[in-house]
Amino acid sequence: MTRRRTALITLIVLTLPAMLPAQPRTSSMAGRSTVYAPNGVIATSQPLATAAGLAVLQRGGNAVDAAVTAAAVLNLVEPHMTGVGGDMFAILWSAKEGRLVGLNASGRSGSLMTREELVKRGHTRVPLFGAEPITVPGALSGWVALLEKYGTITLAQALEPAIRLAERGFPVSPIIAEQWAEETERLMRDEGARATYLVDGKRAPKAGEWFRNPDLAASFKAIAAGGPRVLYGGALGRTIVDRVKQLGGFLTLQDLADHRAEWVEPISATFREHTVWELGAANQGVAALEILKIVEPFDLKAMGHNSADHLHLMIEAKKLAYADLARWVGDPAAMKVPVTRLLDDKYIAGRRALIDRARAAERVEPGDAATHSETIYLTVADSAGNMVSFINSLYEAFGSGIVVPGTGIALQDRGAGFTMTEGMPNIVGPNKRPFHTLIPGFVTKPGAGGRQEPFMAFGLMGGAIQAQGHAQFLINVLEFGMDLQEAADAARFRHTSGLEVALENPISAEARAALEERGHRLGPLLLGNAGGAQAVMRLARGWAAASDPRKDGMAAGH
């Protein structure tokens, strides 16, 4: 080949990108495949947690055993999101009983927490960080309740992989390392947080850097040996309460001793011949169901996935549902309207009629209900047919930012989910459950003899995106026929308030322009605010599972 010809070819190659038309936006976030397996599957937001849960299944444990084991490992490897210092909820399909059950393992506010005291301290809203918003950590009670009623292993056995990792250490994964680093300044403010979660008390661990938490290992060992009462009224609980009181918090040891997880009935709504199940008050699950019921009569498929028509309808339905959340939902004992009232067909029809298909509504606000949450969601299915939809959270990253020295446990700030507006069911008060963003999801379908059969366990972590994210994920599967991984990968929107909507990049320029013409104010939906989905689905034979590419996690099966 002559030198002149070589130069000509080089010139063409170098200029080719400029000669080609602009590349279209990708339609999804990633290209990983759905995981298919014959015996059982698990999907979590961190590979070590997935591996620990999968090992339990491979040893003959069931879905509950694997879920609790994975949750304990996540306390260590994804510490800003989850742990025994937070709350958890679950929906479980019991194959033996042939039914769906719900679990509420959220804690109440301290008996000393009153609106009057907060006002006296100069607060107009419950603080987001520090000791004041710390509520009873309910997660451990949920882990125990699941294992005692439906598990096959002991709490000590479920904690063992986390204890081993906490003592020996592990390399931190990339997305978690990045999010961890964003909290450095806040971790510096608390003695225990600084000593536990910052390298040399100065910085967060980097991706691939080794991290240990021997204090958490010690706390888990104490719980393994003495049971949950070590936390709920015992020595560990006293250590926590004494420190929280010293820092101005409202918990007492009796508050911990009085705590109990509660088995509850999930609420449901039908969509496209399936039944979607969520947890009711004080969770936001009713909003996901309300969104689905509002949009069900529309031909979403004809509109086109993530088209302007599709997105506009979903956004407007979200505004209506979240406005209801803010006004009506709180601790069930304080509610004047049952959540089932919000799903009444006549009521839904009235809400649907408020949607202007050509214009975005500005004044349908979600009120001051909490919109933050640092959360993990995981789901497991086993060879017997048990399926667990499991969510665990600290609320903000590292919760309150308080780690009692020597415990390794970040304490949640779920009390910030209360409002101080008088007359609202979610008003702050002693021994109350605050409004919760946490919602595990489940789907059943009609089976033989009119009975419901399990179809899918799913969830999408991320605070106020959860209910709107549930609706988007379900419509991807049930309306547009996507497989699980496609449904998790697909670009999302997140409406915040008023006309403000954040969109992920793959949503087309054409759809964006049309939405702006209708009055929506668009911004970018950043990776950390787009939520993270996990899902498992029962097949005619075997299982499918998916894990969100926006997190470090993975799905696996055997």
Runs with pLDDT <50, length 5+? 1-27, 365-372
The tally of beta strands, per DSSP, is 19
Give the helix tally.
Answer: 19
Content of β-strand: 15-25%
What is the makeup of the main sheet? 7 strands, antiparallel
Helix share, percent: 25-40%
Walk me through what this model shows.
This protein is globular. Residues 1-27 and 365-372 have low confidence and may be disordered. The protein has a domain at 37-88 and 102-260 and 387-417. Helix content is 36%, strand content 18%. The strands form four sheets. Strands 1-18-17-13-12-9-8 form a seven-stranded antiparallel beta sheet. Helix 3 (63-77) runs parallel beside helix 6. It contains 19 helices and 19 strands. The protein is of the alpha+beta class and 558 residues long. The chain has helices at 3-19, 47-58, 63-77, 115-120, 139-150, 155-168, 174-181, 184-188, 191-197, 214-226, 235-246, 253-258, 285-295, 300-303, 308-328, 345-352, 465-478, 484-489, 509-517, and strands spanning 35-37, 41-44, 87-94, 99-105, 170-171, 210-211, 262-264, 267-271, 274-278, 374-381, 387-395, 441-446, 452-461, 493-495, 500-503, 521-524, 532-538, 543-547, 554-557.
List keywords for this structure.
about 550 residues; seven-stranded antiparallel β-sheet
Offer a concise description of the structure.
With 558 residues, the protein is an alpha+beta fold. Helices cover 36% and strands 18% of the residues. The chain has 19 helices and 19 strands.
Set out the fold topology.
Elements: H1 3-19, E1 35-37, E2 41-44, H2 47-58, H3 63-77, E3 87-94, E4 99-105, H4 115-120, H5 139-150, H6 155-168, E5 170-171, H7 174-181, H8 184-188, H9 191-197, E6 210-211, H10 214-226, H11 235-246, H12 253-258, E7 262-264, E8 267-271, E9 274-278, H13 285-295, H14 300-303, H15 308-328, H16 345-352, E10 374-381, E11 387-395, E12 441-446, E13 452-461, H17 465-478, H18 484-489, E14 493-495, E15 500-503, H19 509-517, E16 521-524, E17 532-538, E18 543-547, E19 554-557
Helix pairs in contact: 2-3, 3-6, 6-10, 13-15, 13-16, 13-17, 15-19
